[in-house]
Amino acid sequence: MITAYHRPHTLEEALNLLSRPGVLPLGGGTSLSRIRSESIEVVDLQALGLDSIERKGNQLEIGATATLQMLLEDHNCPPALRTALHLEAPLNLRHAATVAGTIVTCDGRSSFVTTLLALDAKIELRTPAGSDRKTRPRAKSRASSPPAARSVTIGNFLPLRPHGLITSIVLPIHVKLAFEYVARTPSDRPVVCAALVRWPSGRTRLALGGWGGRPLLALDGAEPSGLELAARNVFSEAADEWASAEYRMEIAATLARRCWQEVGS
Q: Does the predicted model carry a pTM greater than 0.85?
């Protein structure tokens, strides 16, 4: 149950509110709007200007509160990423769900986050300056310090979902990206999906989704040798009510091969 609502107008104010116990960020509200038994306070991020999408050289910088539909409609969004976004949620939810909120609440069936993992996306996090009270004494001056910033790869972020407010996500767009999936229906969430990225240097990353608590990285190397074997190995124990592990292993290998046929030339 939401017991208090805050709408800060500065990033520092938002971070100070979020440093308190039981206070959660509110973006699109698609997750927090679900019925909760515990009492929480929410911090509405809409007034912070974190919804921009901008190309900077060979990178695409996406504001945390940009919606999935905004990203899908942006002219810099790669076609394969658009496919993954279509699968992530129906149209009405895409207009509400934010990029950061989708990352934080994702499970292994997230086609969008699977693609971000293949792209080795960077997540920009902010925490209140001086929030580490064990190592930093309280400042005597009343002047406020700017929020501390750090960047983590999405591969390091997903297992722990560390403390901090996501402000932006940065993707490479000078790469070749392929996305393939298998689902019960064309609009259903994937039972297996594969995203493969190849850099001009030859670096190749394969990420797989469709099972478990988060998408999984199958391959990251200079050469794509062993691509299908790596895909099979990731799903060796991936059995649930949707599919057997054996089925997922074979489909993952097939999808990885199809992706390579798209980006390998």
A: yes
Give which of 184, 182, 188, 172 is closest to 235, Cα–Cα: 182
Cα-based distances in Å from 207 to 30, 82, 128, 191: 25, 16, 33, 14
pLDDT of residue 138: 41
CA atoms within 13 A on the CB side of 150: 13
Beta strand pairing call for 40-44 and 23-26: parallel
Instruction: Please state, in angstroms and rounded to a whole number, the distance separating the CA atoms of residues 207 and 181.
Output: 12
Cα distance between residue 126 and residue 106, in whole Å:
20
What is the edge-to-edge ordering of all strands in the sheet holding 59-63? 53-56, 59-63, 165-172, 122-127, 148-153
Crossing angle between the packed helical segments 227-234 and 245-263, to the nearest 10 degrees? 150
